[in-house]
Amino acid sequence: MRRSEMDRVLEVKNLNKSYSRFALKDVSFSLPEGCITGFIGINGAGKTTTLRSILGLVKDVTGSIRFFGMDMKGNEKQIKNRIGVVLDSDCFYDDLSLEEMKKILAPAYSSWCDQDYRSYLERFSLDPKEKIKNLSRGMKIKYSLALALSHKPELLIMDEPTSGLDPLFRSQLLELLRDYMEQGGKGVFFSTHITSDLDKIADVLIMIDQGHIVFQEDKDELLDRYRMVKGSKDDLNEEVRSLLLNIHETDFGFTGMTCHIPEIRNLLPNVLLERPTVEDIMLSHTKGGIKNAAEFS
Ligand code: ATP
Fold first, then answer.
1. Closest by alpha carbon to 145, among 167, 174, 168, 166?
2. Which residues fall within 8 angstroms of residue 204, CB to CB, at 6 or more apart?
3. pTM for the structure as a whole
4. Which of 16, 20, 22 to mutate to test the pocket of ligand 1 (most atoms within 8 A of CB)?
5. Is 41 near ligand 1, meaning CB less than 6 Å away?
6. What angle do CA 38, 44, 50 make, to 5 degrees?
7. Closest C-alpha residue for ligand 1 atom 1
8. Which of 202, 138, 199 is nearest to 170 (CA)?
9. Whose CA is nearest to atom 2 of ligand 1?
């Protein structure tokens, strides 16, 4: 069965939210069941606002938000029981120990499993007697994850969990997500502007830029569909320009992204076509982005 025909764990339609200098504009997307979906976009693109809006943490949001086929309005408690959330700004009491905080949060979930909770703390080397205020940022994320996973959610939603964290934590997180997905019937929605992790693990990518959804696509299909074109300035005629999405020109040549691979091959048989990374694709769809993509490469 194609992903487009699978059940949706989350369906968002025409989400709108305005701040004084930023707005989400008719944001629509859906999360297929059984997939890790990466939510990408540069700093300030609207990832956190979208995630907080769909979770009912932001006021004056319009649009339709349906989790597991249920409207968020009227089913919030039931829905929140089935999702695990790891947000950037936590809502813990700093003076409590991990154990004390857990005792406050756990009763809200009908499927809370204390055995799972203890094993996650052990896996993350977290001491239950430690005060929350003494945790580093990485340890707080691990603690949030332990809490989120211990009520056996069907959908795990994480906002920038790897931002500012070391490679060891990032690889532990990827391993944890793989284990979680292996249980079956699970989904992950994971926002990030550090896309290298998604190259390895995401099934589907949704990109947001300036409050608009730019695309939602199967990651492998997306990476197959695009190529980075690297050529000399002489190659860059009007026809080639029209086939490129953003162009970065230097004194010697140019770099551009294309989804017109056969046409480019035909016009420029000797040009270099490179398979892009998720970051290349994200930056080429971001206003002014290809310059950065070329500089990073
Ligand atoms: P990052 O990767 O940096 O976390 P993001 O994609 O998550 O970025 P948001 O945090 O959603 O982006 O912010 C989008 C825009 O909305 C930013 O310009 C931000 O300043 C603005 N914004 C967010 N929250 C508020 C608020 N409470 N009041 C006014 N503006 C806000």
1. 174
2. 3, 31, 32, 35, 36, 37, 38, 216, 217, 218, 219
3. 0.89
4. 22
5. yes
6. 55
7. 43
8. 138
9. 43
pLDDT 10s per residue in the chain (297 long)? 444 435 789 999 999 999 999 999 999 999 988 999 999 998 899 999 999 999 999 999 999 999 999 998 889 889 999 999 998 766 788 899 999 999 999 998 988 999 999 999 999 899 999 999 999 888 888 899 999 999 999 999 999 888 767 888 888 888 889 889 998 889 999 998 888 878 888 999 999 999 999 999 999 999 999 999 999 988 889 999 999 988 889 888 899 999 999 999 999 998 989 999 999 999 999 874 444 444 433
Tokens 């603690």: give the residue: 143
Q: Whose CA is nearest to atom 29 of ligand 1?
A: 19
Interatomic CA distance for residues 236 and 255, integer angstroms: 10
Say how many Å lie between the CA of residue 44 and the centre of ligand 1.
Answer: 5
Ligand 1 close to Cβ of residue 123 (< 6 A): no
Of 115, 161, 122, nearest to 140 by C-alpha is 161
- In angstroms, the CA 203 to CA 177 distance is 12
